[in-house]
Amino acid sequence: MLGIGGSLREGSQSERALRIALEGAAEVGVRTRMLSGPDLVLPFYDAGEPDRDERAATLIEAVRQADGLIVVSPGYHGALSGLVKNALDYVEDLRDDRRPYLDGRAVGLAAVAYGWQAAVTTLEQLRTITHALRGWATPLGGSINSAETKFDEGGSASDEKSVRTLRLIGRQVAEFAVTRAA
Length: 182
Description:
Layout: E1 2-5, H1 13-26, E2 33-36, H2 54-65, E3 68-76, E4 79-80, H3 82-89, E5 106-113, H4 116-132, E6 136-137, E7 142-145, H5 160-181
Parallel strand pairs: 1-2, 1-3, 3-5, 5-6, 5-7
Antiparallel strand pairs: 3-4
Helix pairs in contact: 1-5
């Protein structure tokens, strides 16, 4: 299970949310890996440029090997972050794979933004991108208003419902991956 997201700020609210969702996946017994913040500082995606730097190659291979993904983006001005969008653009490099793009993989999605409008619109954009990449968006997605919910360093949040939602998203992705593998 691969988690992608967060922001450049270490310990950001969206990175903490991603960690909680990955914990939910781990509860099902799957191995998890997270690429966030500095791991996602990549050159702008260019389909015409076949050479990839080390970080981009690591991301592409991690997505290729993943049986499921969890993507958490901060919402900036009503949209997902450029950091997360650029990382998702690199999935284009999997177009000719045996499993092209995110085909056959569950993708859990959550957005963390200061305000409901940005959280909801960011989640909707993540769903649209997931569908365009042939991924199976989980039935439950998370829109988290960071004006009302604060994540702490201990892996929890001021709003227990947000924690339950994120863990359930992680479990849904993991259960889909385990069921599909069987």
